[in-house]
Every structure is written in C-alpha cells, then in structure tokens.
Amino acid sequence: MEDIQKYAQTSTAWPFEEARKILQRLKTQPPSKDFVLFETGYGPSGLPHIGTFGEVVRTTMVRQAFSLLSDIPTKLYAISDDMDGLRKIPDNLPNQEMIREHLGKPLTRIPDPFGTHESFGHHNNARLRAFLDTFGFDYEFISSSDCYNSGRFDPMLLSVLTRYEEIINVILPTLREERRQTYSPFLPICEETGRVLQVLVVERNEKAGTIVYKREDGKLIETPVTGGHCKLQWKVDWGMRWAAFDVDYEMSGKDLIDSVKLSSQVCKILGARPPEGFNYELFLDADGTKISKSKGNGLTIEEWLRYAPETSLSYFMYQSPRKAKRLYFDVIPRAVDEYLSFLDKFPEQTWDQKLNNPAWHVHKGTPPQEELPFSFGILLNLASVCNTEDKNILWGFISRYAPTASPKTMPMVDHLVGYAIVYYRDFVKPHKHYRVPTLAERKALEDLATSLKRGKRDAESIQMEVFEVGKRHHYENLREWFKALYQILLGQDEGPRMGSFIALYGIEETVTLIESALKKE
C-alpha cells in the first residue's frame, strides 16, 4: 500500500493532480466537519443527460484518487437546484400546455408532466438518482428546495442579508446597465402566484430578517428571506451553498469560469473558503454544437448503453476532460476499443503505470481480468461481413478461432458481441456501400487471394502478408490499400486490423469474399 501511495504522489493522471490540490488545501485548514466534501450540481429543468453523468463520474474519480492519498473520510453531495424557477419549456417534455401555465414557479411546485411524481422537480430528481444508482455511485442526494424550505440555509441567507451591499458590489459590475437597476441577490417567491420574482428590493430589515420588494402592480410586499420565502440568484446561491456546506471540491464546465470567480467572491464574503476544482470542456453534438439537456441534441445515457458497456462511457469521460469532444454515436466503437486496450495492458504494468491507466480510474482501482482476443471493431466488422443479427453465428466464428471461447468462459466478449450486433443493425447496415475494384485493385486482390491460399497462419503473419501485397502493387501510402480493402470487401471507409479480422473470419471465407468482389463489374 505504501508503494501505491508513493506512486500516487507523483502520478500525472489528472484525478491525482486534482486530489493533490485538495491535500494542499487541507495543510492550511483541515476540515472542521471531519470529512472532505465533494459536490456536484444538477439543474433539473431538463431530463438528466450524459453531461450530468460526466460531471459525477469525473468527480468520483478525483474522490477515489484522494482516498488513496489520504485517510480522511469523504462524501459526495449531488445537489439539485430544484428551487429554480422554470424559464422555458424543454422541447422533449409532454403536456407542454400544462407546463406553460406554471412557468416561473420553482420546479418542485410545478405538476409532473409525466404524472408519476408530486412535481416536475421530484420527477427529474428521481431520474437523476435512478441513473446514478445504476452506475453504483456513492453519493448523498440534496434537494435545494428542501434546504430552503426546512431552514437549513437560513443562517447563510441571513448572512447574505447582512452583507447585502458587499455582495451586490461584486455582482453589479458584471451586469448590463438595465439589469443593474433592479438586481437583488434575493428572489422572492410570490405568495399569490407561486412564481419566483425578479423585482426591485426597496428596503431591508436585517433585525427582522426581511426584505420589502415592489411588485409589478406597484404594491410593496414585505417577506422573510428565510424559510423558503425567497431564493438567491444562482451565482450568489452557488457561493452561499459552498459556504453553507463547507464544500472542498467542485468541478464545472468551461462556460462557467466567470461564474466560478463571482461565486468564489461571494463565498469569501460569507466567511468561507471556496472549493478547489477545475473547469472541463463541453461536449459537442454531431454538428459541433454544445449539447443541451433542454434541446436533447446529444447522446443520452440510455443510447450509449444500448451500443456499449457503461465502463466505456466512464472511460470516455476520463479521457482529456479539458478538451472539447464530439459526443455522438460514431465515437462509441473507438471509445470501446481504447478502453479494452487499456484494460488488456493493466495486469502487466508496474504500479506507476497502473495509476496512470484509465482502467484503474474507471474500475475504482480493481479492473476485471478476462482474455479479450478480439477488439470491438473486429466483432463489429464480423457482424457486418456475416450480415447477421444472430449471436450464435458470430460465436461460431469465434469458437473456431479460439476453441475454448464461449459465452460462459468469456462473458465480456459475449456482451460485446451483443453490442456489435445492435450497433451494426442501427448504424452500419443502413449505410453500407460496396464499390467495384479498379483494374489495379483487381490485380492486387487476386494477388492477396493467392497469397492467402498458401496456408493457415496466425493474425500477425496474415497482417504482414497484406502489407507485402500492398507494397508489391506500388501503394506508396499503404493506408490507401487498406481503405480499398474496406470499401470493396466491407462496404465502408474504415475497418479493422485486417490480419486479426481474416484470422477470425477465416482464410477460406476471406478468399471467397475477395472472389465475390472480383466478379462485380
């Protein structure tokens, strides 16, 4: 264990770099609450989406790294901002006319459009908890509405009232002139309509713990800032929450860099220290546009899990968190194969290498061990060439190549076979297009078929033979040779490592495939 901790102190894996920032923080001020608190926030105006999962899994990876470096207990709060007023109706919700009647109200005071929970906020909170539970995250769920209504935030709300001028002097310079005229950290909740109001506060009574605001009809209303009668503007709310819970670590998207700075200032004004954290890049959809939970323009958790194991999604989230990445269906096969490659390397690595291996972070330090003779890409192409959605047919090829292989002895491979079939059916099969070989390509294919007929060989020998055929036929860039094979034999622009694929599919079957392509005019 000491050796592992020694390597953890110098690991360049980003979760360990983040964990060491927390350790440095604790040197100057140990946590008074006897544990280190990680936090992740969730805006439940839309249904939970894959970006939310990404934030939780990345935070969990930092927490896991910290636990290897320190014996101090840790907790993770997953906090729902369900006290927010609903500003617009997400496109992917039912009963939109009903929801329109409740615009402006806190999410936990809007009827559930799905009809399954006591409110829209409760429904989406349940969705959040359900998929976090599916992935086995260790967290404590916190409802912002519950904290406001129960009085849990009351001491900090009164502190905001006391430091009102200091706080607005931080916020006002960041606002447009028109917004400055009516800005207040407090958003009263109208007793008559139930809506969250952005109105002018004309008077404050620190002793009574109340504010007086002017309604649109000109009437002056006095209301407590405590007990759920008001909520805070979100940047102030964020800083207040850090102070109320004494949060030690929270990450956020790159689009919130300026907000983090403002909320940190608010947190300091309230007498607390802002948490450590870093800003990750945002995910992009197929068109390079930021994914949005309200638009539903990215992959959902359910969609990824339809085509690949959950561990591959965790791996995707681990990789390069500060780099913007497309998050669409076509990234899945590569993510799976990269994950499997790291998993395969893990057992033979030294501890310093293991702690830098994504598999350690994806599997909480204990990656599974199972022989994986094939990549996901090869299984995908096997399904494509066989033109089948029958797992038994694919297993026939697999067991011929590896006689001891079976769904029972290789359950991970069996799962991958199932994913490959579904992905092939939905994305590959509808777009397959075989092209006819050119005269020069015909000669090269005839040469390849002749070479393959010379005898049974392993994947490496076959791969070298494919290379040699390409060289003999004057392919200056061998990528063009392999691309031709993919287009002519597989009906696609990209494909597997040919040596491994031919070894799995079979030499005789590959020769037959080549001969069939040569017959096309």
Q: Number of helical runs?
A: 24
Q: Share of helix among residues?
A: 40-55%
CATH superfamily of the largest domain: HUPs
Radius of gyration using CA atoms only: 29 Å
Number of strands: 12
Structural class: mainly alpha
Biggest sheet, in brief? 3 strands, parallel
CATH fold type of the largest domain: Rossmann fold
For the record, give the distance between the C-alpha atoms at the N and C termini, rounded to a whole number: 66 Å
Give the percentage of residues in beta strands: 5-15%
Quickly give the CATH architecture of the largest domain: 3-Layer(aba) Sandwich
CATH top level class name of the largest domain: Alpha Beta
Q: Low-confidence stretches at least 5 residues in length (pLDDT < 50)?
A: none
Shape: elongated
Adjacency order of strands in the biggest sheet? 1-2-3
Q: What's the pLDDT, averaged over the residues?
A: 92
- Give the tally of structural domains: 3
